[in-house]
Amino acid sequence: MATTVEQVLRQIETLTDEERRRVRDALDKLVAAEPQPTPAQRRMLEAGLIRNVADPRKRAAFFRNHRPIKLEGEIISERILAERR
């Protein structure tokens, strides 16, 4: 049984030159959209300190969608400052 990638490759072979160009352009856009590791991240990957680099877009989406919870009472940072005085 052929994998999905093998099936796609066989289908690409049947395309016209114009259709292949469109497929190539679409793939180039996908690759360009992938975040690239920074030089520091690349060195850590090579040294084996980390196994992968998280997609910063997912982290940004988390923070965009984050809603802080409402708490009642004194703000803890204000209390700490008051106790130090």
Major β-sheet, in short?
A: none
Mean pLDDT: 86
In one word, what is the shape?
elongated
How many runs of DSSP E, i.e. beta strands?
0
The secondary-structure class comes to mainly alpha
**What fraction of the residues are assigned to beta strands by DSSP?**
under 5%
Radius of gyration: 25 Å
Low-confidence spans: pLDDT under 50, at least 5 residues? none
First-residue to last-residue Cα separation: 74 Å
Query: What are the secondary-structure elements, in order, as H or E?
Result: HHHHH
Helix content: 55-70%
**Tally of DSSP helical segments:** 5
Protein model, in words:
It is a single chain. The protein is mainly α and 85 residues long. 65% of the residues lie in helices and 0% in strands. The protein contains five helices and no strands. The chain is elongated and about 75 Å long. The model has no long low-confidence stretch (mean pLDDT 86).
